[in-house]
Design goal:
The protein is mainly α and 135 residues long. 37% of the residues lie in helices and 7% in strands. It has 2 domains: 52 residues; 59 residues, no CATH class.
């Protein structure tokens, strides 16, 4: 009798008792990722609203930026600032340069800057941006 009193009770849990992993379709992932980019919302709030952990949403956002999530990266617009200041190294006014001498500086969201001639072909610029923005 004393043998039963001193032994602790053991509860056996099986894998079927736990919550199973959910499988998200690419459309659902894209919808959640796009929602996390809207306005000033934080990734944490979006993840909490959909019942996923923040690290999973961060992984999905990285996959989206790298073009790994969904079919292809959607076309998006970036904010542009036009500055009338001339660089210190340049003595010529901006309006007097020929198109082959004029350059445009593009600041990418990842912090990189790209300086290209004004008359660069759009297809070539698109290919360059796809490579530079991805890394």
């Amino acid at each position: 009798m004393s043998d039963f009193i001193n032994r602790p009770q053991i509860e056996v849990l099986s894998a079927a008792d736990g919550e199973r992993r959910r499988h998200w379709s690419n459309d659902d992932k894209l919808r959640i990722v796009e929602e996390s980019f809207i306005g000033h919302r934080q990734a944490t709030a979006t993840a909490r609203r959909h019942g996923i952990c923040r690290s999973l949403l961060t992984t999905w956002r990285r996959q989206f930026r790298n073009g790994e999530l969904g079919s292809s990266r959607p076309v998006s617009f970036a904010p542009v600032t036009v500055s009338k200041e001339t660089p210190v190294s340049r003595a010529n006014p901006v309006n007097s340069c020929s198109p082959s001498d004029c350059q445009v500086e593009i600041a990418l969201p990842n912090g990189r800057r790209l300086i290209v001639p004004v008359d660069v072909e759009t297809e070539a610029l698109a290919r360059i941006l796809a490579v530079v923005d991805r890394q």
